[in-house]
Amino acid sequence: MTAAARRGLRMAVAIGAASLAGAPAPAAAQAPANAVGAATDAPPPPPLPAPEDPAAAVEEPAAATSPQAAPLVMTGYVDVGFANAQGDGTSFHPADTRAPLDYGVDPFAPAVNSRGDAASTDPGRDALGNPRFVNGFLPRSAGIGGTPSFLLNTANVDLRYTSPELPVMVFTRIQLLPRLDAAGETTRLLLDQAFGRIAPIKSAELAISAGKFDSVFGIEYLESQANFRVGITPSLFARYTTGTSVGLKAFYRYQLIPMSSAISINASATNSGTFVEPLQGSSRSLTGVPVGAARLGYELNLPRVSIKVGGSVEYGPRNDQLDRAATQRLWGVDARVYFAGLSVWGEYVDVAEDEGSGDGKLTGTGTYPAASQFYARGFWVEAAYELRCTGAPFRLTPYARYERRHGEFVDFASILVDRVTAGLNLSIGDSLQVKAEYLLNRELEGAPTVRNNVFTSSVVWTW
Q1: What's the confidence (pLDDT) of residue 32?
Q2: Predicted confidence band at 68 (pLDDT cuts at 50, 70, 90)?
Q3: How many Å apart are CA 409 and CA 25, to the nearest integer?
Q4: Exposed, middle or buried, 149 (CB in 10 Å: 0-12/13-18/19+)?
Q5: Cα 115 from Cα 96, distance rounded (Å)
Q6: 394-409 and 387-388 as β-strands: parallel, antiparallel, unpaired?
Q7: Distance of CA 442 to the CA centre of its chain
Q8: Is 33 exposed, middle or buried (0-12, 13-18, 19+ CB in 10 A)?
Q9: Could you read off the pLDDT of 145-201 as tens digits, one per residue?
Q10: Which CATH code for domain 3-58+72-462?
Q11: What pTM value is reported for the model?
Q12: What residue segments make up the domains of the chain, in order of their start?
């Protein structure tokens, strides 16, 4: 195979990968080469390093023809970590007698991995030896408490089939999550995404998807997977905006070529909206009414500068209870700027949930007595600078994030917390990232002060 053919093959593979999100291949190829510089507002595809032997992937193309990517592609990653959380690995104070206990703190704060799993969610016991009462405002748990531990955070397998006859793509993302808890050693199998997508108009950047797919709210979902994220842990608002759900989605992008710009709309109607699975399950609708979400985006792509801004909304019944009149309402704004190796991005998010039915609450982690009225608002902002050494096969990226969240369960508690996160990302080639991160959690108002800072690290092997 000639050098030109090899370059053509690598471009075909990259174009095929870009099609996963409904993004136009030419724009994806021109995106800034940084970890957060997505070409469009649709989810980015898994990175696809060129095969060692391109001839083993596809047949040698005939002269004057374009090489074709294989219709079925399998990729994935393994995320291995080491974490050490202060205290008992929770945000719960041992002397806190309020109930529900999880309403007066932020249980999501001591995160240890890109899934947002907390070091622990064990509420402990009261003075009589009974488990303290919690009501399901909880993340998944790594179960390590305050004990330093290695973690196999995620073993991920992606399968993508692209039809050679039709503009159709089918994608599934399967994740294995091994954990040791009080019930023993278990490995949870999670079908994170499973959808089909069609691009019905050849001359337009329009894609329609059906199945279980990424959020359309804001921008943090773009880096929800460990192999896409610059850092390790998600923000304090990811619980509201990065969940996958079952339904229908449409993405449309119109390029303003003379202005080096584009306008996009990403919209969905799903069972549970964009809340993460521990808060609202997505596999079926409990009310029979879908949750609508949409983001309107604008992007400016210049040779040295990329600017993307957007606004998102979400409205529909909360999918953890049975009353279709009990709604969840979200709105937010986001921005991303890339210039000369420096990336800055962030969001403001406002969340409101009505009180649910008296039948209790059903979440991804189980059933609970009450679906309480709830409000939250705040922001996060992150910055990263990519250091490159000419000729070196690695990139070093220091990064930092600041976030501030106000939350209130009506008639229970109002709390204000913030968090400072700092870390380093060492990327070696396309298949290895080594990350180290420290989370400084602070309880500012309403929540008891606890030792819940976290050191965590991650090695992400992408294949």
Answers
A1: 33
A2: low
A3: 45
A4: middle
A5: 27
A6: antiparallel
A7: 23
A8: exposed
A9: 999 999 999 999 999 999 999 999 999 999 999 999 888 999 999 999 999 999 999
A10: 2.40.160.10
A11: 0.85
A12: 3-58+72-462
